[in-house]
Backbone:
């Protein structure tokens, strides 16, 4: 079993590298000799390397930093969405090595059939990575729904009609490769990617709420540096918070849910009711978003009004989350990132107006720079977290 101090050092480098040895020792609270021994262990395994640092100000001599080694291993993320499969492969530092996106048959909702398509795309991608002679450490698989991450079972994916699907077992069988497979929701994976990006950029604060902004609204929640799942793994299904008791009908059978005002489908419907039928299919939804963006860019008043209204409701929903969770930041992900020029300002204004004591400080409200690839990046990163948590042996 790997020494706990080695894993402590690895976790610190995952989150904060590159970092100098003295700073690393202070961060993990270990003696210099212990840090040195742990670093040497990780270097022998090909997980950590020395990197050039900044000048320390004494005769211009540069410091030597430590970071994850980008040359030996690969981490794969696979996202199974409603209408497409996304696969990306990353280095240990999160550098994207390759990515592919394939549209799948919209009528394919059968888990086995969809998994076969997803596995074919993943095999093709990994075949290209194998040419670089990198060792694959694992695959994270993202789905847009409720997941029991402890068993790899998908409890419910409304957009695919899946109930109690043993996805981890299915992925392992479909892939036919002997590597660890991790299953979780798109929101939980995406918030991991956001957390790491903020930490590596030196941004303080570890409490984050990430809103998916894809086919529904789900939240990935990080508090105390960990993804918060709740007692039954159901935390984060915020799209069906009721904001208006007598509001618009929702697909869940109730009225006035968050999604009916700020969801992507609701936004498209408000901008152009005639697009409702075409946007009901996944391919039609993607085309409707493109059309909406084009209209807004051309100054179409109805499109811009719908976007402003959706932003306002995003702010109101975010205020509820802020009151419940008090995060440092709320991040709008997925398709919301494409809509930033029109939704972010009204969302921030509405958030401020809806808070009980806005002047005491409110969470930052930002748009993700990762767009629709956030869940895929986070799925790959989860493999690295699994290593650092001693849930699988280090290479």
Residues:
């Amino acid at each position: 079993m790997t020494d706990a101090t080695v894993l402590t050092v690895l976790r610190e480098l995952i989150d904060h590298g590159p970092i100098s040895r003295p700073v690393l020792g202070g961060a993990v609270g270990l003696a210099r000799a212990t840090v040195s021994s742990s670093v040497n262990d990780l270097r022998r395994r090909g997980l950590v390397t020395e990197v050039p640092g900044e000048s320390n100000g004494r005769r211009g001599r540069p410091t030597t930093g430590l970071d994850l080694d980008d040359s030996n291993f690969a981490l794969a993320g696979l996202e199974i969405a409603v209408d497409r499969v996304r696969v990306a492969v990353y280095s240990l530092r999160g550098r994207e090595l390759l990515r592919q996106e394939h549209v799948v048959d919209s009528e394919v909702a059968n888990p086995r059939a969809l998994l076969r398509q997803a596995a074919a795309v993943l095999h093709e991608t990994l075949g290209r990575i194998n040419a670089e002679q990198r060792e694959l450490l694992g695959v994270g698989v993202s789905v847009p729904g409720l997941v029991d991450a402890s068993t790899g079972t998908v409890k419910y994916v409304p957009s695919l009609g899946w109930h109690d699907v043993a996805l981890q077992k299915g992925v392992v069988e479909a892939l036919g490769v002997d590597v660890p497979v991790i299953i979780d929701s798109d929101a939980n994976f995406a918030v991991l990617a956001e957390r790491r990006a903020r930490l590596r950029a030196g941004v303080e604060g570890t409490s984050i709420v990430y809103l998916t902004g894809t086919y529904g609204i789900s939240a990935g929640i990080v508090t105390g540096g960990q993804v918060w799942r709740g007692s039954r793994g159901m935390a984060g299904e915020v799209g069906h918070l009721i904001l208006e008791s007598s509001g618009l009908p929702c697909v869940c059978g109730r009225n006035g849910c968050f999604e009916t005002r700020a969801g992507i489908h609701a936004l498209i419907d408000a901008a152009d009711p005639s697009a409702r039928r075409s946007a009901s299919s996944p391919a039609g939804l993607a085309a409707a978003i493109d059309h909406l963006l084009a209209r807004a860019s051309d100054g179409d008043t109805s499109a811009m009004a719908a976007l402003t209204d959706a932003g306002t409701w995003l702010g109101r929903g975010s205020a509820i989350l802020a009151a419940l969770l008090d995060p440092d930041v709320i991040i709008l992900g997925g398709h919301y990132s494409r809509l930033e020029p029109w939704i972010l300002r009204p969302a921030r204004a509405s958030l401020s107006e809806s808070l009980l004591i806005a002047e005491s400080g409110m969470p930052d409200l930002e748009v993700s720079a990762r767009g629709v690839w956030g869940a895929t990046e986070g799925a790959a990163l989860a493999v690295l977290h699994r290593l650092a948590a001693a849930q699988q042996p280090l290479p």
